[in-house]
Amino acid sequence: MRLVIERGELLRALGHVTSVVERRTTIPILSNVLLKASDSTISFKATDLEREVIEEAPASVETPGTLTVPAHMLHDIVRKLPDGAQVELQREAERERLTLTAGHSRFALQLLPAEDFPDIAVGPLPHTFEMSSADLKRLIEKTRFAISTEETRYYLNGIYLHMATRDDGAMLRAVATDGHRLAQVDLPLPSGAEGMPGVIIPRKTVNELHRLLEASAGSVTVSVSDTKVRFEIGTVTLTSKLIDGTFPDYARVIPQANDKELTVSNSDFMSAVDRVSTIASERGRAVKLNVDGNKLVLSVNNPEGGSATEEIGVDYGASALEIGFNARYLLDIAGQLEGDQARFMLSDPGSPAMVRDSSDGSALYVVMPMRV
Length: 372
Known about the structure:
Pfam families: DNA_pol3_beta (PF00712), DNA_pol3_beta_2 (PF02767), DNA_pol3_beta_3 (PF02768)
Domain DNA polymerase III beta sliding clamp central: 131-249
GO molecular function: 3'-5' exonuclease activity; DNA binding; DNA-directed DNA polymerase activity
Structural class: alpha+beta
Main location: cytoplasm
CATH topology of the largest domain: DNA Polymerase III, Chain A, domain 2
Keywords: Cytoplasm, DNA replication, DNA-binding, DNA-directed DNA polymerase, Nucleotidyltransferase, Transferase
CATH superfamily of the largest domain: DNA Polymerase III, subunit A, domain 2
CATH class of the largest domain: Alpha Beta
CATH architecture of the largest domain: Roll
């Protein structure tokens, strides 16, 4: 292999693929990135056996070839090269090394056999559809905070993406829950997604996908099977295994009979919760909401740290209610709301609350109460 590539193109491609490479792994080949040069492009592939990222970049290829080099070391070298540098990559066959030359800098990296590099066997992905990167990013951003980190409940360690039916038509729905709060967001079902299986996209893949979408403004092609999912974002392809489990019947925890509606300025509510929770213990983080008439009193009582109360005006026409929640969960949900007003649908101190955005009917949140 011998080629020349512009430093910026090389850095961009390596930045996309090395993020899935574990810095510590017991399988040496997984520390490497696979480089494959042909015609006028070079492709980069990295994997952790659960996820695989492939990226292409333009290059002036003199001699095609395939090899693997340490991913993070190569990325660190390229990151430290000057902007605009022309980088020459050449394989030394007799010494099984890759030499990287840029200006007066020269590096030699050890290789591992390309034939040892693992390949995620994708197989057929029968359901393929296209959606805007902004829509997919929105689905992720509004739900990923509720993904569980409890490994024993592995089936909650991701976002459940599936087809759902509402009165106004078929929807592509994303749901995440950790048993304490739930986030649900709907989008009109993209063409081609009809009949797709419900899939649980793992947390690591969700985070990697979100990172890739931040630099994308176009469309994303999504392909799904029962065991794998693939996202094609510009020149990047992210393939991932799915969580092999059954997502619980989340509809059962969405309250249907909460008849006490409280409307409050979202910014005022977030600021008040944030202030009073300063007193809360790290373990409990419980904040009590006492609503009566058009007055909401938020209070925290920590035997070790003191107490705090704050009063804000609300719109509430039901009977007085006192209920407790985890302050962090309230702030996480309020942080997803785009409108000025937050709508809380309440029932009693022992029942979950439903939260909606005044300006966005597609998102729904549920938070379980705490005993305070």
